[in-house]
Amino acid sequence: MSEIIQIQGVSKTFGGVVANNNVTLSVNKGDITGLIGPNGSGKTTLFNSIVGYHPIDSGSIQFEGREISRKSVQDIARMGLIRTFQQTRIYGKMNCVKNMLISLPHRKMSLLESFKQNSEQDFEKADRLLEFVGLYEKRYLNAGSLSFGQQKLLEFAMALMNEPTALLLDEPTAGINPTLINGLIDRLKRANSEFGITLFVIEHNMRVIMNLADRIYCLAHGELLAEGRPEEIQNNQKVIDAYLGEH
Amino acid sequence: MSKRFVFYGVLIAFILIAPFILPDFKTQLATLWLMIIVAITWDMTGGQMGYNSLGNIFFYGTGMYVAAIIAIAIAFDVGEYTNAFSDTIYKFTDTQYFLGAALGVLGAGVFCALCALIIGYITFGLRGPYFAIGTLGVAIAGGELVSNWDWVGGGQGISLPVYPYDLEGGKVFFYFLFAGTGVAAFVFAKWLYSTRFGAALNAIRDDEEKAEAMGLHTMRYKLIAWSLSAFFVGIAGGISAFQLIHFEPLETAYQTINLGIFMVVCVLLGGKGTLWGPVVGAIVFHLFKEVTWNYFLGWQWVALGTLIVVTVVYFRDGIMGWLVRVRPEWFGIRVESREREATS
Fold this sequence. Notes:
The structure holds two protein chains of two kinds. By secondary structure, chain A is of the alpha/beta class. Chain A has helices at 43-50, 73-78, 96-102, 111-114, 120-133, 148-161, 178-194, 206-212, 230-234, 237-244; strands at 3-14, 17-28, 32-36, 58-63, 66-67, 81-83, 166-170, 198-202, 215-220, 223-228. Chain A is built from ten helices and ten strands. In chain A, helix 3 packs parallel to helix 6 and helix 5 (120-133) packs across helix 6 (148-161). Chain A starts with a strand and ends with a helix. Chain B is an all-alpha fold. Chain B folds into two domains: 23-255, no CATH class; 257-344, no CATH class. Chain B is 73% helix and 1% strand. Chain B is built from 16 helices and two strands. Chain B has helices at residues 2-21, 26-46, 57-75, 78-81, 94-123, 129-147, 167-194, 196-206, 208-213, 218-244, 249-253, 259-270, 277-295, 300-314, 318-326, 338-343; strands at 158-159, 246-247. In chain B, strands 1-2 form a two-stranded antiparallel sheet. The two termini of chain B are 22 Å apart. At the A-B interface, helix 2, helix 3 and helix 4 of A face helix 8, helix 9 and helix 10 of B.
């Protein structure tokens, strides 16, 4: 299977704090790849580096074989690499449908097309995806009035609306009602299998990531600690130590 | 649907007959239209996109100068025409006047749209209050530059010919120029906000970083929006140049402390980010301003300041924002889902 995201020796420091140190990993096309690690281990920093939020100190990041470590956030997003945020970001003053319509893939739209009104298909697509994440009933509510968990689901639906090639999810289940988590795992898997979107997921919930991912990387103190299939990670002594504070 | 039809019909009829049933207020009404135009266009970036420009007056002043220079250049040499020490009398023929006005006003719009692209490319790197101050700086700098440029008349400004026919007719002529531009700006804004482009502007306003992360061409959209807004302001400035006959750079053209602030106040009063807000705000503000100027002279600035403070402190959403909140159904805002509507 081909690698869609390749990260080679990426380092990032903030002043004296080493957030990522020589991280090398890759995400296979069509897979669900997990990224775990204790708090402060540099997972979100790595995500931010991938999507161009800040320049990296050294190393290389490639998306579909093209170097993206020097590109801007928008350019990377327009290549089809979309991320969601740990603290959800939605357009709070608009209703869910409008949130969805704004998330149409503008990279596939000419300037002239952007001066058109949303078509019936756009509305149908928005409704379908809101149905998919279970927010159909709430679609005329202001997004800002949704609960945190629902906003997470909305942000996920918005990301799907954008038809990305690869989607980086930062803790998709954080703040979501435990009874809904199984449903969400199912939806993430369906997004992967039905829409063919490669997923790269940061997750703290071990049950979720073990069920979800094809392959898992574990970061600790900014360095890659372990990698492997879920069951390998589960039994890796270094990972267990990192989580239990042996470091 | 038919109710709306009647509403717009009555409105258009009123716009058409207003200067004839209120003959003493022709110029007042024209000025009101100017306020409406600058308020609607200010809201395109300020209300819909979240970029509060204090420098839109730059396009008004530039529009005036561009229109005047084009009109003069068609008939005469601009440097000689504006020369303060010359005693030549310049007489425009009717054709020169109307051709100059038409080309000048259109040219002003196009030139200002281009200016907005260039200035926007530099200033859109600034966000929030920095953008407001940055654009204010551009407007002030524009006025100072022009007032020191002798070729366009320096601090003296430019005098344009008077409307060649009956002067009362001239007032009607300028009323309809402004009204036409105002209606065009309104219809244009109404259409623009219904497109994907309009939605993208709202996205930039609500969370620009998110919009960037979703791959929206934010810089492109910001530039185009400001450029469209500058086009109408430039046209309004061009018309003003001919209406006012004489204008000078700091107090008339680049009048940052008057019209430059008034347009912002109009929008805040009427409601930012709403279609009708700027229109309602401009009407209320203009009435308030004229009444205080006429009946409370000496206290007019105090009254105006009070109005601004009361609006900013107690009516942060403006008149239309307040109406949307208390009467959402008037604006077709649905909160319930379709199923529930069907059962209720």
